[in-house]
Design a protein that fits this description.
Radius of gyration of chain A: 24 Å
Strand content of chain A: under 5%
Largest sheet of chain A: 2 strands, antiparallel
Structural class of chain B: alpha/beta
CATH superfamily of the largest domain in chain B: P-loop containing nucleotide triphosphate hydrolases
CATH topology of chain A: ABC transporter involved in vitamin B12 uptake, BtuC
CATH class of the largest domain in chain B: Alpha Beta
Number of domains of chain A: 1
Helix content of chain B: 25-40%
Radius of gyration of chain B: 19 Å
Strand order of the largest sheet of chain B: 6-7-8-3-9-10
Oligomer: heterodimer
Order of helices and strands of chain B: EEEHEEHEHHHEHEHEEHH
CATH topology of the largest domain in chain B: Rossmann fold
Helix content of chain A: 55-70%
Largest interface: A-B, 29 and 39 residues
Number of domains of chain B: 2
């Protein structure tokens, strides 16, 4: 289907079904229950899952296939956001032109930054991209204040021209897709459960599916094969008559455009853009997502993005009070000890938990979460086969006895 | 007029004259060996032919065109393929993919953004690669990851990757360096087999006299960056100048 192999088609369908039902899947606990704080099915967080999923998918096209570790991809995310907000200010609150401009601008910047950075490889490439991203961050923060509004960040105002929409009446306008407002949410109550279906989320989800589909096509194309060859042996590439530079540059621009799309979507969900989005920690985050999920795999980056965003938003909300509730059944002394031990790992300390998990994954599952899933799958299959063997052995013995 | 004409090539590294006035002519459909003691400039000469180094002066003409100033991938596209001392293959890719890549390079040139096509549907390229693999007796290994091949098979694969491009000139840089005698003999057999099946010009840089005398039709002896003689193997063996410069230390 759609020019994909059967296995890839199944994967795409699985991703489509999961994103479609995510509002239900991510809210497994009834609203009033003690576990409700582990529910991740609220629109704001689901949008983040999907948007950072797109960001990581794009990053994986560069890092997973060619092995070039960019440490400055947040620059393109930021450029995407600024472009989108400018489009909202100048043209229209419709998200389509905004996102289009985000992708184009990020692509142009990626072309320039990539052209310079790709003259070097390995650690020097990483440092160059990091330098460019920090330059962009500092420019956005100070020198380019007329464009980026510096520290405050770029926001919508009542005096924006918005050529197509006309002057706004009353409050600030909201982003929409031909009238369907991104913030519109329908809440469905089923028994004790409540599920939020938001327009913004589904808009992002559709784009995630498109982004994922394109990424699968790239992985399975001759171009994708060339990118893997670049990672494997550049010397042999050159002596096989292939020019590696345009291949790596194309991969860099494509992944920059993915980052721009993600940045544009962030702004489309919440129309403001700040320089913080370009900081090096944001660049590092997408590296973590990709490696945690499984660099070079199709689905890994999306898993990694979901995993990190879940921790960031859910784990950080657990505080000592909640811990005391959980361990209330214990004798007071023990309860206090356990809460004291767990304290550094929760709330603001969620980074510590994430760091430990990241270490465990890198040490024991170098292929990321995807490798973990594959190993588990293999384990079960082997057990099945063993069971089959035992059955056939038993059958043979029975036959021999008769 | 040979397919490769090297005229008056000089290359200097600081105070060291690596190549001094090298003239060399390689005729079409011959196996031409370039031998010489360590530091004679064999590798420097080879690197000048493939675009890795640019000579200080002189000319290198291949098939009527100058190769000087061109990048390695451009020179490869002109028809010069190179086999390395230690096989350079795409270790993370499968054997079949390793051979498909040069097929793509030959069909599509140095770069093409074929991001929206599917490898699976490239049946022409696949058949071409499989045919080549069958030719070097490796078709049964097509699904293996190249890094898991034995050393001999890696060499075979690298040869297949070069040959599938149908090069006008195949350069071999010490193809048997560091090999055991049995592996060396296998490589010689492989090269003989390759030569017998098609018209191909080969230039071999080699240390091992056994390899050179088994394969070469012409031999150029290089010493201290300058060619001493160019002769047939029979005449080289007894040549006094060669004996003095090089063979004195080797039993032939």
């Amino acid at each position: 289907m759609l020019g994909l192999e059967r296995r890839d088609t199944l994967l795409l369908i699985a991703v489509a079904v999961i994103t479609l039902f995510a509002p239900i899947i991510l809210n497994p606990f009834p609203t009033g229950s003690a576990l409700a704080q582990f529910n991740a099915g609220y629109p704001d967080l689901m949008q983040r899952f999907v948007i950072f999923g797109i960001f990581a998918i794009g990053f994986n096209i560069l890092f997973g296939l060619t092995g070039y570790l960019s440490f400055g991809h947040a620059a393109f995310l930021g450029i995407g956001s600024y472009s989108a907000v400018w489009m909202f200010k100048l043209l229209s609150m419709n998200v389509l032109p905004a996102i289009l401009l985000s992708v184009i601008m990020a692509g142009l910047f990626a072309l320039v930054i990539g052209f310079v950075s790709l003259r070097r490889s390995g650690i020097y490439f990483s440092i160059l991209t990091l330098a460019f991203a920090q330059m962009s961050y500092n420019l956005a923060y100070s020198v380019l204040t007329p464009i980026t509004n510096g520290e405050t960040g770029l926001q919508l105002t009542l005096s924006d021209p918005r050529i197509l929409d006309g002057a706004s009446t009353g409050g600030l306008p909201v982003t929409s897709l031909f009238g369907a407002e991104m913030r519109d949410t329908t809440t469905l109550f089923v028994g004790p459960w409540s599920w939020d279906f938001s327009v913004g989320y589904y808009f992002c989800a559709v784009l995630l599916l498109v982004a994922f589909y394109i990424s699968v096509r790239i992985f399975r194309s001759p171009f994708g094969m060339m990118l893997r060859a670049v990672k494997s042996n550049q010397q042999r590439m050159n002596y096989t008559g292939l020019n590696t530079r345009p291949y790596t540059l194309a991969a860099f621009v494509i992944s920059g455009m993915y980052a721009g799309l993600a940045g544009g979507l962030l702004a489309a969900m919440d129309p403001l853009a700040g320089a913080d989005r370009m900081q090096w920690t944001a660049s590092g985050e997408v590296v973590l997502m990709t490696i945690l999920g499984g660099a070079g795999t199709l689905i890994g980056p999306v898993l990694g993005a979901g995993f990190i965003k879940y921790f960031e938003n859910i784990f950080s909300k657990i505080n000592d009070g909640i811990l005391h509730q959980w361990f209330a059944f214990m004798p007071d002394g023990l309860e206090n000890v356990i809460v004291a031990v767990l304290h550094p790992f929760i709330g603001k300390g969620w980074h510590l938990t994430l760091g430990l998990m990241f270490m465990l994954v890198v040490i024991f599952l170098p292929g990321g979460l995807v490798e973990g899933a594959q190993r588990t799958g293999r384990l079960f299959r082997r057990r099945d086969r063993n069971a089959d063997h035992m059955e056939s052995d038993a059958a043979r013995q029975r036959a021999a006895a008769e | 007029m040979g397919i490769l004409e090297v005229k008056g090539v000089n290359k200097r590294f600081g105070g060291l004259q690596a190549l001094g006035d090298v003239n060399l002519s390689i005729k079409e459909n011959t196996v031409h060996a370039i031998i010489g003691p360590n530091g004679a400039g064999k590798s420097t000469l080879l690197n000048c032919l493939v675009g890795k180094l640019i000579p200080d002066s002189g000319s290198v003409m291949f098939d009527g065109q100058s190769v000087l100033g061109r990048k390695p991938h451009e020179i490869n596209q002109m028809g010069i393929s190179r086999v390395f001392q230690t096989p350079e293959i795409f270790a993370d890719l499968t054997v079949l993919e390793n051979v498909m890549i040069p097929c793509f390079a030959r069909r599509d040139g140095a770069f093409r953004l074929h991001a929206y096509e599917t490898v699976r549907k490239e049946t022409g390229i696949r058949e071409q690669a499989e045919e080549m693999l069958a030719d070097v007796n490796m078709l049964d290994k097509r699904g293996m990851t190249a890094s898991s091949l034995s050393r001999g098979d890696k060499r075979r694969l690298e040869m297949a990757m070069c040959l599938v491009q149908k090069p006008k000139l195949l350069l071999l840089d010490e193809p048997t360096a560091g090999m055991a005698r049995a592996d060396t003999n296998n490589t010689i057999d492989l090269l003989k087999e390759i030569k017998s099946k098609r018209d191909i010009t080969m230039a071999i840089i080699e240390h091992d006299m056994h390899v050179v005398f088994s394969l070469a039709e012409r031999i150029t002896v290089l010493a201290q960056g300058t060619p001493l003689v160019e002769e047939t193997p029979e005449n080289i063996k007894g040549h006094p100048k060669v004996r003095e410069a090089y063979l004195g230390e080797a039993q032939v």
